[in-house]
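Entry details:
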Amino acid sequence: MFSFLLFIFLAVVLIVLSTAGRVLSSVFRLFRGVQGPGRTSSDSYDSENKYDNGDVVQSEKGAIRMRNFKNLAEETEYEEMKEEPIQRTVEYERVERNN
């Protein structure tokens, strides 16, 4: 009986602390001027994507990589392959009959 009461007490304490944490974080967000989780401004998004090395924004690095890839793909010469007829083997015929 004592362990059941202890379990109920701990569950109530966790629920109260969780609720208090959410309320306090909402209050602190109001004081800081940060918007809710569904409404992030572009300034806050850009500030989260910075690398520590060289203060380069992640999207800028990605844009540079994409430009390099595009230039390389445009410079590469491709040659079309000719279709060769499939050689039908005995095993290929067996597989065709089973399907």
